[in-house]
Amino acid sequence: MRWCNLQGKRVLHPPAWIGVVGGGQLGRMLAMEAKRMGYSVVVLDPTENSPAGQVADFQIVAPFSDKTALRKLAEQSDVITYEFEHIDAEALHELEIENHTVIPSSKTLKIIKDKYLQKMTLYNANLPVPPFCKIESKEDLVKRIGEFGLPVVLKARQGGYDGKGNFVIKSESDVDLAYEKLAGKDLMLEKYIHFVKELSILVARNFEGEVKFYPVVENIHEENILRITKVPAQIDSSIKSKVEQIARKVVEVLNDCGIFCIELFLDSNGQVFINEIAPRPHNSGHYTIEACVTSQFEQLVRILTGMPLGSTQLISPCVMVNILGNDEVFGKYTVEGLEKILSMEKVYLHLYGKSTTSRLRKLGHITVLDENVEKAERKALETLSHLKIKPL
Questions:
Q1: Is 95 exposed, middle or buried (0-12, 13-18, 19+ CB in 10 A)?
Q2: Name one GO cellular component term (predicted).
Q3: Domain around 97
Q4: What residues are designated binding site for ATP?
């Protein structure tokens, strides 16, 4: 089955095939929504019985760099998407040349996976970003620190996630260690923003250019890992409007369709700066499964198949907390304490089916709905206190 025209629109009807590059938790939750809506799903991931592979119709077990496997995925799919950025944009472009549909496009992926190119694209569009520059050598780094002042963030241009590939330089004594840690990578430097809140917003954009915003949320990170998402963010209406204006312009500049998460910093002067963009569903959007009329994953299925965008209305204030691996358990594990958690009302547990755990590995999440964010946060933290990761 391929695209068919319906009143001038390109649409895919069930049981059309959706191909997903990546078999992690984002692919898993996308596959679950696609299956609920009657679509077929094929996943490419190097790990057998991956979280997404467990619920998809079929998994191709191969490295992401395997172009033969990627072409096999394309041949079995009516449309292709990806659940993370660290894949070969040129390989996807080759598939597009052969008339395979990739959403978001390889052009967008190429821009976003290179943090410097991403920032340049935003800067050239007059969007608010922290001061930044390329770094060519240690001497260049020292010179630029003198211009920017401390603190600054040294970043690998490609490949980093959850804080990996970043180093916050707080003093001159950090320079050697930072440069050594990221040696051999293409680098950029960014002025550190003294933020009062970390915000993010999900934006949906379809083939026709229609745009819908999800609520602006507040994120709390520890050790560069998202711990808590509070919905809606406790910000005034002017900040909310500013974030939405920025988000609209970002997707207009990218001129693509899909789900995009825009992460931002809010400083004490009320200024908002773009941190990063993810061209896919995002950890900070997991709350949408229970707390919005249309989840981020259903929305992406709608976009992939040419169906109408769904409502992004928030049903209830909520808080999402990540379930992370601890310092004591490595390898196979079990999760205890579910009886107490499942006895609590408006508490929704998601475990990702990962076969092994390690420190700070994302194993699942819990979303709690309540009449306000404060009550939801208290209950969410209580649920985490009952949950125990134990060796199997």
A1: buried
A2: cytosol
A3: 4-102
A4: 115, 155, 190-193, 198, 221, 275-276
